[in-house]
Write a structure and sequence with these properties.
The chain is mainly α. The protein has a single domain, classed as lambda repressor-like DNA-binding domains (434 Repressor (Amino-terminal Domain)). The protein has 5 helices and 2 strands; from the N terminus they run βαααααβ. The protein has a two-stranded antiparallel sheet. The longest helix is centred in the C-terminal third of the chain and has 11 residues. The protein is globular. This is Putative transcriptional regulator. It comes from Niabella drilacis (strain DSM 25811 / CCM 8410 / CCUG 62505 / LMG 26954 / E90). InterPro entries: Cro/C1-type_HTH, Lambda_DNA-bd_dom_sf. GO terms for molecular function: DNA binding.
C-alpha cells in the first residue's frame, strides 16, 4: 500500500502554482517538486502544516494511501 501525494491536485483546486506555494510556505520549488512527485522520503510536520495553511486544507487532503484491490 504505497503512500500517494496529492499536492498537484490541491494546487489545481486552489488555482495556485508551485512557485506561489513555495513563496507562501518558504520551501524551495525543488523540495516541493520532490514532495509533489512522491519521491520524498519524509516531510516535517511544520512543513506539512505550512502547506495545509497555504492551501486551506487538511493533511489527509494531501497525503493518502493507495489501497490494493
Amino acid at each position: 500500500m504505497p503512500i500517494v501525494i496529492n499536492l498537484d491536485v490541491m494546487l489545481a483546486r486552489r488555482k495556485m502554482s508551485l512557485t506561489e506555494l513555495s513563496e507562501k510556505v518558504g520551501v524551495t520549488i525543488v523540495n516541493l517538486s520532490i514532495l509533489k512527485t512522491g519521491k520524498a522520503k519524509g516531510v516535517r510536520f511544520d512543513t506539512l502544516e505550512a502547506i495545509c495553511k497555504a492551501l486551506d486544507c487538511k493533511p489527509g487532503d494531501i497525503i493518502d494511501i493507495e489501497q490494493n484491490q
